[in-house]
């Protein structure tokens, strides 16, 4: 029911200004993605004030495109421009969040999601009209971007913050246990674990042909013999899972994308040994929109959810939980899967995720 009230001109003007700012920043995200992919931020971080030609030559890129990109960077407040010399400079304070040297602080990695999601806008529009979903294989480069994302959010803190969430886990891995990563993507995480703990055996499963191909190629290049990957649809994992085979099972931002998430969780419960541990990373929503309004990147997460996580699940005739299913719903699903011993952790440097340490 519409509330009858006088039109607030100042509010309208403020909203218009905010929308213009949003459109500018939305456009800028594409340029940030390109700058990351072609190495321009990395190149400029090693240079003083330089011309577009010098920057292009150092980066081995076409000058005309670099010059237009620099126009977006300057007007977007990312790069400093000296008009008297027509030179450009990336301040170190900005480079700290835009270069590969920045490690886990490199926000340019996340800008890539805008371009990936933009590829399927037409299909998403049709889903709004007719329902259904967009299948995973339509998202070109998604597993590549996701691997780079998890490389920052998980790999960078794997030894320092994540493994210590489970007391005694490192010691068990050193002695040798069986580990399963469900929804392993391109396998960077378990390949890292396999390199650290040679006596343990690691298995990764995923339904993406491209991701598994990349994982196998990476494993072969590294010469790992204690890790292997399997291409598998997990919709019936509650039936297909082996009985109490694994000492440690992990999922990294993977359950909410599944067509049948409860079946996957029940399969994990079935496959986990009685004294085993299930380590689960999920997006740190709350299951309540009014609380999610407080999340610093909630609009970004809901957008990624609508244009990838939710629709990929619906394309499998699934539930479409979405990335922001939240802690409350997550706990309910874990309980329904049979888990009763659940601890929730939030890492101080990670604004995006919650970490669950789960036992039978």
From TrEMBL:
Residues 26-100 form the S-adenosylmethionine-dependent methyltransferase Rv2258c-like winged HTH domain. InterPro entries: Methyltranfer_dom (IPR025714), SAM-binding_MTase (IPR053173), SAM-dependent_MTases_sf (IPR029063), WH-like_DNA-bd_sf (IPR036388), WH_DNA-bd_sf (IPR036390), WHD_Rv2258c (IPR048711). CDD domains: AdoMet_MTases. SUPFAM superfamilies: S-adenosyl-L-methionine-dependent methyltransferases, Winged helix' DNA-binding domain. Gene3D superfamilies: Vaccinia Virus protein VP39, Winged helix-like DNA-binding domain superfamily/Winged helix DNA-binding domain. GO terms for biological process: methylation. Transmembrane segments: none annotated. It holds the Pfam family Methyltransf_31. The keyword Endoplasmic reticulum does not apply. One of its GO terms (molecular function) is methyltransferase activity. It comes from the Bacteria. Keywords: Methyltransferase, Transferase. Residues 174-292 form the Methyltransferase domain. PANTHER family: METHYLTRANSFERASE TYPE 11 (PTHR45128), S-ADENOSYLMETHIONINE-DEPENDENT METHYLTRANSFERASE RV2258C (PTHR45128:SF1). This is Class I SAM-dependent methyltransferase. It comes from Rufibacter hautae.
């Amino acid at each position: 029911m519409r509330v009858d009230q006088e039109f607030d001109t100042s509010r309208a003007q403020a909203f218009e200004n905010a929308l213009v700012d949003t459109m500018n920043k939305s456009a800028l995200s594409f340029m940030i993605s390109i700058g990351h992919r072609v190495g321009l931020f990395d190149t400029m971080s090693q240079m003083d004030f330089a011309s577009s030609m010098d920057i292009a030559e150092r980066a081995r890129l076409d000058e005309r495109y670099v010059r237009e990109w620099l126009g977006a960077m300057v007007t977007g407040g990312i790069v400093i421009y000296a008009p008297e010399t027509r030179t450009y400079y990336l301040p170190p304070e900005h480079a700290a969040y835009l270069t590969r040297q920045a490690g886990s602080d490199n926000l340019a990695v996340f800008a890539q999601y805008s371009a990936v999601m933009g590829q399927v806008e037409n299909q998403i529009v049709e889903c709004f009209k007719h329902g259904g979903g967009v299948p995973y294989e339509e998202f070109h480069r998604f597993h590549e971007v996701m691997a780079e994302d998890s490389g920052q959010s998980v790999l960078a803190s794997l030894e320092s913050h994540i493994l210590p969430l489970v007391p005694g886990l490192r010691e068990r891995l050193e002695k040798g246990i069986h580990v399963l990563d469900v929804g392993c993507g391109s396998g960077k995480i378990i390949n890292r674990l396999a390199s650290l703990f040679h006596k343990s055996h690691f298995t990764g499963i995923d339904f993406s042909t491209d991701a598994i191909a990349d994982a196998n190629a990476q494993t072969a290049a590294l010469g790992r013999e204690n890790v292997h990957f399997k291409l598998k649809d997990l919709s019936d994992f509650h039936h297909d899972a082996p009985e109490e085979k694994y000492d440690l099972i992990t999922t990294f931002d993977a359950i909410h994308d599944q067509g049948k998430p409860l079946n996957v969780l029940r399969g994990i419960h079935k496959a986990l040994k009685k004294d085993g541990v299930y380590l689960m990373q999920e997006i740190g929503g709350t299951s309540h929109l009014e609380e999610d309004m407080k999340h610093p990147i909630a609009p970004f997460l809901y957008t990624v959810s609508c244009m990838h996580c939710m629709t990929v699940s619906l394309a499998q005739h699934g539930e479409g939980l979405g990335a922001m299913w939240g802690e409350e719903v997550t706990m309910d699903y874990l309980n329904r899967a049979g888990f009763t011993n659940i601890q929730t952790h939030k890492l101080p440097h990670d604004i995006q995720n919650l970490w669950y340490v789960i036992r039978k």
